[in-house]
Amino acid sequence: MLREPLGFPRSAVAFPFEQESLHLVAHQGGTVAGCVLFHPESPSEGRLFQMAVLPALQGLGLGARLVSGLEAELPRRGIVSVHLHARAHVVPFYERLGYATYGEPFTEVNIPHRHMRKSLPSSILGGLEK
């Protein structure tokens, strides 16, 4: 969904750490409608990547639900910090979800990007436990 419009074959999308990553996938009528992946880089933090929603379904909240679902699961696994590389045009999407930019803009796969990050509650109770 992300790389094919750029002319990259589907086989070029595999990441060496993909097998160890958490995959959340939304289906609609047997078709993949959206996905988000997360790779733990330490016991408490990691990287959100490959967030994608079919163009026809964008703007309907599916992407936000995928990220929220991921964020609900991560504290159960001890993850309290998430970072990502956001394409510049989707920075507002992630800002609405509580992510903040940091560092300088950069280019990845010939597209302007920003580093973004977010701290998560340390438990599924949102830090309210005693």
UniProtKB/TrEMBL annotation:
Xref: InterPro entries: Acyl_CoA_acyltransferase (IPR016181), Bact_Acetyltransf (IPR050832), GNAT_dom (IPR000182)
Keyword vocabulary terms for this entry: Acyltransferase, Transferase
Pfam families: Acetyltransf_10
Residue ranges occupied by any N-acetyltransferase domain in the UniProt entry: 1-121
Gene Ontology MF, one: acyltransferase activity, transferring groups other than amino-acyl groups
PANTHER family referenced in this protein's UniProt entry, alphabetically: AMINOALKYLPHOSPHONATE N-ACETYLTRANSFERASE-RELATED (PTHR43877:SF2), AMINOALKYLPHOSPHONATE N-ACETYLTRANSFERASE-RELATED-RELATED (PTHR43877)
Protein name per UniProt: Hypothetical acetyltransferase
Protein's organism: Stigmatella aurantiaca (strain DW4/3-1)
